[in-house]
Fold this sequence. Notes:
Ribonucleotide Reductase Protein R1, domain 1, two-stranded antiparallel ribbon, mainly alpha, Fumarase C, Chain B, domain 1
Amino acid sequence: xxxxxxxxxxxxxxxxxxxxxxxxxxxxxxxxxxxxxxxxxxxxxxxxxxxxxxxxxxxxxxxxxxxxxxxxxxxxxxxxxxxxxxxxxxxxxxxxxxxxxxxxxxxxxxxxxxxxxxxxxxxxxxxxxxxxxxxxxxxxxxxxxxxxxxxxxxxxxxxxxxxxxxxxxxxxxxxxxxxxxxxxxxxxxxxxxxxxxxxxxxxxxxxxxxxxxxxxxxxxxxxxxxxxxxxxxxxxxxxxxxxxxxxxxxxxxxxxxxxxxxxxxxxxxxxxxxxxxxxxxxxxxxxxxxxxxxxxxxxxxxxxxxxxxxxxxxxxxxxxxxxxxxxxxxxxxxxxxxxxxxxxxxxxxxxxxxxxxxxxxxxxxxxxxxxxxxxxxxxxxxxxxxxxxxxxxxxxxxxxxxxxxxxxxxxxxxxxxxxxxxxxxxxxxxxxxxxxxxxxxxxxxxxxxxxxxxxxxxxxxxxxxxxxxxxxxxx
Length: 475
């Protein structure tokens, strides 16, 4: 490659050749050399969050005459172009990088500076005109930008990915609850027979569980709307205009159409990772129950000849490289794997959150990737599970009823009529002799046939008892 294919950039450590076609600069180059770790580049949502911050800061600093108006406009235009999809390949720093996220932050600053130079009719690398530090980063520090970017990235991921996915899944599960409401099946506890339930209520319970998790996540994400932007290096606001802090948060709120507010104590907002731990904990909680739901779907679909086979999950691909005609519950299996990954990310976030020292937590790059990635893979997983699994589930009504009618747990309904010990003896004899519960009770004269018909009514037994706040007194 000839010398004309390079430009020379300089930082405090010296000069380096930078390929002329790239928009990142010398600090990004050094980071790519220092951190060839995972090959994982920053998430698009995280880059978007940083760009939105840089757009807001450029606009506000221009309005406050902290940077020239033409440079302010050029930086904002560059941010808009990249938000629209241009130059995405220029964000190249590995997610495992310099503490606090300085390497990624400078990658963003350099790309915006060089694109702003082109917009102004200049050439990349002429940092005397537009400087990554002095203009793009005016009044900012990695230490307040990155925790703000994690907050904004988390909100973007929740809004665009997870919450819509949860709403779709909840609706799909409620639709199945209605469809299956009249189907009676055997309940199971400890993986043993239990009293009968409605298949529809199983799916209604799933929907209710996800709805409650969505509410918990909404509550936890409120912490993400409180921003420490304006704290600069240590939370003191050094090198910022007196009006900058309030106005930049106001501008970001306008860009995001989200009710953001400045933190009441900027040092605290910089030091504590509690908001991220809180949201991650809510995600882990969702993942735990979602994994359980996926396991339940697999169990109910197990078979087809030697398992429960109470439901049929839609086959979406061949299930075996050697056994013809085999279909596996792959969407549920994938769901469990993603849930386990989210739980692992949560553990890493907790470890990183407690590893901060004094005025800064340098483990923020790990928190940023794990938190936003958790939100997005959970959202995409739930969407895929809804579309390619839940909506296509069918019920094997005959199999469900057979299990319910043959369950020894039906004897539970006899407790209040013949007593627990007598009922246990009936169940034991039924298991040993193969006789039905009904036959044994009638042979022993413990109840009349009319009484038995009333008590062993599966339709009635499988109904959920309505909640009542009455004290039993008539009006």
